[in-house]
Design goal:
It is a single chain. The protein is of the alpha/beta class and 234 residues long. The chain has one domain: Rossmann fold. It contains seven helices and ten strands. A six-stranded mixed beta sheet has the order 6-7-8-3-9-10, with helices on both faces.
Length: 234
Amino acid sequence: MNNIISCSEVFYNYNNSFKKKNDLSNIKKTTSVLKGIDLSINKGESVAIIGESGCGKSTLLNLLGAIDKPSSGKILINNTDITKLNEEQTTKIRADNLSFIYQFYHLLKTFSAIENVMMPLLIKGIDKNKAKEKSKNMLFKVGLENKAEHLPNNLSGGERQRVAIARALITNPSCLLADEPTGNLDAKNAKSIIETIIELNQQQELAMVIVTHDEKIAEKMDRILILSDGKLQQ
Ligand SMILES: Nc1ncnc2c1ncn2[C@@H]1O[C@H](COP(=O)(O)OP(=O)(O)OP(=O)(O)O)[C@@H](O)[C@H]1O
Ligand SMILES: [Mg+2]
């Protein structure tokens, strides 16, 4: 099969319990967010997911990224059903196949740009000198070769997101999951970040799922899916 991610009949409910004032009993509340998601993403394919705030886009991305498990349904990553795996197996399949980018970069503040990019390689046990060399090349690809030693605080928003992209792609993942990666950037930086991601997508045969509110960005993807009432519409 050529799918990197495939899910069928995926449901997700948030279950919260809370106490009312002057009442000791627990009140349980279930919010059904995803109500039957079917989705297949091919290797190298780019997909945008759009939809109103609160419709469940981040929830869906967390399921696709094996960060959370669905209430019911099947999710296959590279043909393995992740809903049946234990914590350790899930961590491995995530590390071997997926990478994430978020709206607020999530960089480690006390580490330089290059150290942030090196981190996933060091965690994998790759030799420090090799990791540094590879990270230098990756920073070059995202246009930041001159800012390798900068701390995140000494970089602009667009530059920080470039470091996050370099860090996400340094391990050659099969699929990039991005939750509003340009949500914190001005239009010019947003465009340039997306162009960089698309270029890397073509070079590395990288599949990607991008959650975005920006129509211009969504239009650059191979497919646009609208999440509405817990389901995906083409
Ligand atoms: N921990 C939680 N407990 C209960 N409900 C939650 C929880 N987290 C999220 N929700 C609810 O689930 C729904 C989907 O949330 P989600 O964050 O996936 O939406 P979203 O589409 O990413 O929104 P946005 O565009 O604003 O980021 C929302 O109605 C939200 O209030
Ligand atoms: Mg969200």
